From TrEMBL:
<feature type="transmembrane region" description="Helical">
    <location>
        <begin position="390"/>
        <end position="410"/>
    </location>
</feature>
<feature type="transmembrane region" description="Helical">
    <location>
        <begin position="133"/>
        <end position="151"/>
    </location>
</feature>
<feature type="transmembrane region" description="Helical">
    <location>
        <begin position="529"/>
        <end position="546"/>
    </location>
</feature>
<protein>
    <recommendedName>
        <fullName>Glycosyltransferase RgtA/B/C/D-like domain-containing protein</fullName>
    </recommendedName>
</protein>
<keyword id="KW-1133">Transmembrane helix</keyword>
<feature type="transmembrane region" description="Helical">
    <location>
        <begin position="104"/>
        <end position="127"/>
    </location>
</feature>
<feature type="transmembrane region" description="Helical">
    <location>
        <begin position="259"/>
        <end position="277"/>
    </location>
</feature>
<feature type="region of interest" description="Disordered">
    <location>
        <begin position="813"/>
        <end position="856"/>
    </location>
</feature>
<feature type="transmembrane region" description="Helical">
    <location>
        <begin position="228"/>
        <end position="247"/>
    </location>
</feature>
<feature type="transmembrane region" description="Helical">
    <location>
        <begin position="354"/>
        <end position="370"/>
    </location>
</feature>
<feature type="transmembrane region" description="Helical">
    <location>
        <begin position="482"/>
        <end position="500"/>
    </location>
</feature>
<keyword id="KW-0812">Transmembrane</keyword>
<feature type="transmembrane region" description="Helical">
    <location>
        <begin position="35"/>
        <end position="58"/>
    </location>
</feature>
<feature type="transmembrane region" description="Helical">
    <location>
        <begin position="70"/>
        <end position="92"/>
    </location>
</feature>
<feature type="transmembrane region" description="Helical">
    <location>
        <begin position="171"/>
        <end position="189"/>
    </location>
</feature>
<keyword id="KW-0472">Membrane</keyword>
<feature type="compositionally biased region" description="Acidic residues">
    <location>
        <begin position="845"/>
        <end position="856"/>
    </location>
</feature>
Length: 856
């Protein structure tokens, strides 16, 4: 056959003439060749698709569920970047920056504009699918005024970069390849809803979910954490509102939006490092970002929380501060104020950025003013920098920052009568919701003890200084056996500031890092919060690496082994706590091959929570008893953790009827809790809760490890007071008979020794009096060590075990002259519905509770 084809091509046949015409160099045959190539490729595609379709139908590919996530993420990126560039170049008239830095500032301003658009939509009730498309489309259209030209400038800048030669070329290619692998691995570790962190499952994502469901900004009275700044949640609300996605895809959308900001941190590192190197181009410098691999480990990984959103603003804040401090230009005053305000919209840990900016600007202003004052006095020359100019520029920074962050404070003032709610309740005495002890709870019970600054006075400040040098070596808490995984090259390369050329800018950035870590040490020392400023020390490290390398071959003899050691030591960090997330991603990717094509098979996440949504009416208001990982329950949730909200207050309640009335007064329609796990804060709450649920509630449904109870339609009969509880070996209480309201002690707020609540009748030693106390009790709380301590009483027949916790069991009296209430459910062996493993250390005051620090 091949022989016949060669004869045909070599003869004067029509096929030979056709091939000769196609290979001609004239324009018409060139067009024919293009058409022929296109037809041949499309024909091959059709045939290939038919073959593949027979094995795995094309309509079932996972691609069609991932493509909307990529498309919407790109829409957000381009719309924010475009409008930000317009604001930067045409609004502020800043047009001389390197393209990478210009893009970073453009993204900063554009993100703020996008979030302002979401706040506007939240006020007027436009958080709807149509607005989710129209608003970014409008921003993108406006951004076309500058976006194409910026892309052209960026391309020209990248083309102008000198490609390394020889050994350096191989080093550059290797670093770039490793960086690309790290990006892919980071994406896989953040792909599925199993990557969502603990905090994100109960307020970061649910805030966006609730805003989108309501179509507007709504108040949250059942948890104080919802009242902190939440720029990330406003973006998540957009992700929950856009059309064309499943609920599970929307959860993944939140993770994709967070990854956009992680990439923004990478760009920030490259832009800041280039500034620190006085504009010197170093290809592949962005890869230094992954020399600090803690973002791969549990608690610091991208998981839908806010730390990486805050971290995005670190580089813009420092760049704007350093450029502003050069001449106190009002344009950079606006840019610095907007960057600081954007950080404040993310979370209150923006005080780190404020400290870094102050560390750069304040000494520079003082130095210039002192110098110019000296020049004016001694040489009678006009000062180059007037005090008035510095003051006006400072007022611009402050005004723009407060104006940028204003939407959050205005929202709180409207809903809570307190712009900084839940803080300053003693100042804003009409804060809502508020009860007699809410300010005390916020001040003393809310903070998580392991994170509070250590020491007082000078000792605390010495510890803060030490943290600057040890933060990467000594984790303050860990899910990876306290293995240091932050990355230590910043600390180890600090001595290079003594010998490198061009040291002023890197030294100033290192000083700013010190200020940020000092502020961190004096506020709340949760290691993951350092992600909010880590881009700055990474950029300093990148600059120090370049300058140390440029010292010469002998310096490299020490530098290369140091960097190699960091790489080898931390090479397995992504796998410390990432295998479960990675396995989830690989399982989803493999779902097409495994023929798990349906959405129900492919997206099996939080099924119990989705079932609870279907089982409750849209206007349900669910009380979650000390249970927080509620993502997927698309109903209003009220938490009852005493230190973390001020709507539900158990202390004044004296019986089940009062508890019922209290729940009804705040609109509770359903109760959700995991039986036997996460006990209430107080024994009082545990007893009254079980009395109401087991004695009077009849509509109970089980969803995995969760129990859903419908509030009784009829109230319990009036309470027979006092409702008395016998405590035997109960944690924190002397044995004896108590009125239930006396059992209100929160573990974190235990009174001083000797001032504990005293029983109305102490537990006696003789059996007859013991029987009398037992007969007077309506409930009994028995600690886990009661029997071992000789406080063993027979409760069978008169009492039944309503709920067994790790440290105690609640027994309720059988109803006299009535049938025994429905027996309680046995506690599950483990809570499998709480989502991913927690992202914070356990709070010792919460038994069996995976408690994490707040994000406030």
């Amino acid at each position: 056959m091949l022989a016949h084809l060669r004869v045909a091509l070599n003869s004067d046949s029509p096929l030979a003439r056709f091939c000769a015409a196609l290979t001609s160099s004239s324009p018409r045959p060139r067009l024919l060749r293009n058409v022929f190539a296109a037809i041949a490729c499309l024909t091959g595609l059709a045939g290939y698709a038919l073959v593949v379709h027979a094995h795995i139908p094309i309509q079932h590919w996972l691609l069609w569920r991932l493509a909307p996530l990529w498309g919407y993420s790109l829409l957000f990126l381009l719309s924010s970047l475009g409008v930000g560039l317009v604001l930067l170049r045409r609004g502020l008239r800043v047009a001389h920056l390197p393209p990478v830095e210009e893009g970073l500032f453009g993204m900063t301003l554009g993100t703020i504009a996008f979030v302002f658009g979401m706040y506007l939509a939240g006020v007027v009730g436009w958080i709807r699918p149509w607005y989710g498309l129209a608003m970014p489309a409008a921003l993108f259209a406006g951004g076309l005024l500058e976006l194409p030209r910026w892309l052209s400038r960026l391309k020209h800048d990248l083309d102008a970069s000198t490609t390394p030669k020889g050994t350096m070329r191989w080093l550059w290619l290797t670093a770039t390849g490793v960086g690309a692998v790290c990006l892919v691995l980071l994406y896989l570790l953040s792909l599925t809803p199993d990557s969502i962190s603990f905090d994100a499952t109960w307020y970061h994502l649910p805030i966006g979910q609730d805003y989108a469901r309501a179509g507007r900004i709504v108040p949250f009275y059942g948890d104080v954490n919802h009242s902190f700044p939440h720029l990330a949640s406003m973006l998540y609300a957009w992700g929950f509102s856009v059309p064309g996605m499943l609920v599970e895809q929307r959860w993944m959308m939140a993770l994709h939006l967070e990854l956009v900001f992680v990439l923004g941190k990478v760009v920030g590192v490259a832009a800041l490092a280039r500034y620190l190197l006085h504009g010197e181009r170093v290809p592949g410098l962005w890869v230094a970002f992954f020399l600090f691999p803690s973002l791969f480990v549990q608690d610091q990984n991208p998981g839908g929380s806010a730390d990486h959103f805050l971290g995005f603003f670190a580089a813009p804040v420092l760049l704007a501060s350093m450029r502003f401090a050069e001449r106190f230009d009002r344009r950079y005053a606006v840019l610095l104020g907007a960057s600081l305000g954007g950080a404040m919209l993310v979370k209150y840990q923006a005080v780190y950025h404020l400290a870094m900016a102050a560390a750069v600007v304040v000494p520079r202003a003082a130095l210039l003013l002192a110098r110019d004052a000296y020049r004016a006095v001694k040489k009678r020359r006009r000062p180059l920098l007037s005090a008035r100019r510095v003051l006006v520029a400072g007022l611009i920074v402050s005004g723009v920052a407060l104006g940028t962050a204003a939407p959050h404070f205005i929202k709180n003032a409207i809903y809570h009568n307190n712009p900084v709610f839940p803080m300053a309740q003693r100042v804003f005495t009409r804060s809502y919701p508020q009860h007699a002890r809410s300010a005390e709870f916020m001040e003393k019970a809310y903070p998580n003890e392991p994170y509070l600054p250590k020491g007082k006075g000078l000792e605390r400040q010495l510890i803060a200084v030490g943290n600057f040098f040890t933060f990467s070596f000594a984790p303050h808490y860990s899910f990876t056996r306290y293995v240091p995984s932050m990355g230590s090259l910043f600390t180890l390369l600090l001595p290079m500031l003594l010998i490198i050329r061009g040291r002023r800018r890197p030294a100033l950035a290192a000083w700013a890092t010190f200020a940020g870590i000092w502020m961190w040490s004096n506020t709340y020392t949760a290691d993951r919060y350092l992600q909010g400023l880590l881009a700055v020390p990474i950029a300093v490290t990148a600059a120090l690496l370049v300058r140390t390398w440029q010292l010469g071959p002998i310096a490299r003899l020490g530098l290369v082994p140091l960097v190699a050691f960091q790489i080898v030591w931390s090479g397995d960090v992504p796998f410390y706590s990432g295998p479960r997330r990675l396995e989830s991603a690989l399982s989803m990717i493999r779902s097409t091959f495994d023929k798990r094509w349906s959405d129900a098979q492919r997206f099996k996440f939080r099924e119990e929570h989705r079932a609870i949504t279907r089982a409750t009416p849209p206007d349900a208001r669910i009380l979650a008893r000390n249970y927080r990982t509620t993502l997927g329950i698309e109903r209003e949730i009220i938490f009852d953790i005493q230190a973390w909200q001020s709507l539900i207050f158990y202390e004044p309640l004296r019986g089940p009827r009062e508890l019922y009335d209290h729940y009804r007064s705040v609109g509770i329609t359903h109760i959700l809790y995991p039986p036997g796990q996460r006990p209430p804060d107080t024994l009082q709450a545990a007893v009254l809760f079980n009395e109401l649920v087991h004695r009077y509630a009849t509509d109970k449904r089980r969803f995995g490890s969760l129990q859903l109870v419908t509030m009784p339609k009829a109230p319990p009969p009036p309470d027979e007071l006092p409702y008395q509880v016998l405590a035997l070996g109960a944690p924190g209480y002397t044995d004896g008979l108590y009125p239930v309201e006396a059992l209100h002690i929160i573990p974190k707020l235990r009174p001083p020794k000797g001032q504990e609540p005293k029983p109305a009748r102490a537990w006696p030693s003789d059996a007859n009096t013991q029987a009398a106390l037992l007969d007077a009790a309506q409930a009994v709380v028995v600690g886990k060590n009661a029997a071992r301590s000789g406080r063993n009483v027979k409760l069978d027949g008169a009492f039944f075990a309503a709920e067994r916790f790790k440290n105690y069991t609640v027994y309720l009296r059988q109803q006299r002259d009535a049938a025994r209430p429905e027996p309680p459910l046995e506690p599950p062996a483990a809570d499998t519905s709480s989502g991913p493993e927690p992202t914070g250390p356990a709070d010792p005051s919460q038994e069996d509770d995976d408690q994490e620090d707040s994000d406030g």
